[in-house]
Amino acid sequence: MVTLLVVVLGIRIRFAKGMCRVREVLGQLRVPVVAAPMFLITGPDLVIAAGRAGALGAFPAPNARTVDDLDEWMSTIRTGLRTSNGATLPWAVNLVTHRTNDRLAADLKVVAEHRPPVVITALGSPKPVMEVVKGYGGLVIADVVSVGLAQKAVAAGVDGLACICAGAGGHTGHLSPFAFISAVREFFDGIIAVGGGISDGYGVAGAVTAGADLVYVGTRFLATTESLAVQEYKQMVVDHGLDDLIVSSAVTGTDASWLRPSLAANGYDPGDMGAPAIRSYNSGSDAGHKRWKDIWAAGQGLQTIHGIEPAAAVVDRLEREYREAMTRRMTLQTRGAPAT
């Protein structure tokens, strides 16, 4: 397996905090990719398939409709990622920490029991999860969409940041990944995961070269056999491209990247999306599930997705492309080296 600990084809991985735990968790990855947690899309099958293939599988806790379901999902994932020597491959859960999520406390109790190696926080401060997750030795990575939010998360003591950039599917960001990585590296030497429009190994290599340690890949894993997306949704991702995406806050109250045909099919006018909706991220609410169930999101990586295939095949291709890109980088570097 490819190790991500000290040097990956000339790229130094920098971890300031929790070095031993980071090595234990991320050192088992074959490629520096997170199969991004996608609302209503990622379930145990996809987390397990991605994890066994060598990526970091992650799912949003609200995808499990009840706390009992969450408990069952985590048990299934731990069993599915258990290796022959009794160890468990790394995986992650994404918790919504926005104040409107009234299920967070109950979800945290399940997290404390199952101890996922990585907990990703989203749509709110990471502070509510820090004591529990750090208490059992887990890593906390906070989703952020701005430098200001990144600074607040670092002050809270997180191990990593997931910098959500322009081009991300679902709730999206607005910054260039290269600018975002550079800005964050000015004050943070922990784990940086970056996401936004990356669906191949060449983009993964570019992000790592720019200073990221991990790369979120979402839409590419949406169109996999293990994804919870309905077949029509997967096929829409395959059949459409960049010009079929619209970023709007009219559906959830926060800017998100939507598929134009899905908006039209649900009564929205893609040319006039109207005023923002009221924000609500309550895990126990059916309303939020319904919006995302009926209206489909995607990121800018969909242009290069040409079929629905198993997650393991996606990881294989990502690793091959990643190696090709890094080899090309080393070749160009060698060519440019001064003669001795």
From TrEMBL:
<protein>
    <submittedName>
        <fullName>Nitronate monooxygenase</fullName>
    </submittedName>
</protein>
<keyword id="KW-0285">Flavoprotein</keyword>
<dbReference type="InterPro" id="IPR013785">
    <property type="entry name" value="Aldolase_TIM"/>
</dbReference>
<keyword id="KW-0560">Oxidoreductase</keyword>
<keyword id="KW-0503">Monooxygenase</keyword>
<dbReference type="GO" id="GO:0018580">
    <property type="term" value="F:nitronate monooxygenase activity"/>
</dbReference>
<dbReference type="Pfam" id="PF03060">
    <property type="entry name" value="NMO"/>
</dbReference>
<comment type="similarity">
    <text>Belongs to the nitronate monooxygenase family. NMO class I subfamily.</text>
</comment>
<dbReference type="InterPro" id="IPR004136">
    <property type="entry name" value="NMO"/>
</dbReference>
<keyword id="KW-0288">FMN</keyword>
